[in-house]
Amino acid sequence: MIIVTGATGQLGRLVIASLLKTTPAAHIVAAVRDVAKAADLAAQGVQVRRADYDDAASLDAAFVGATKVLLISSNELGQRVPQHRAVIDAAVRAKAGLFVYTSVLRADSSELSLAPEHRETEAAVRASGLTYSLLRNGWYIENYTGGLAGALAHGALAGAAGEGRIAAAARADYADAAAAVLSSKGPVEPVYELAGDTAFTLAELAAELSRQSGKQVPFHNLPQKEYQEMLVGVGLPAPLAELIADSDAAAAKGALDDDGHALSKLIGRPTITLADAVKAAL
Question: What's the pTM?
Answer without folding.
Answer: 0.95
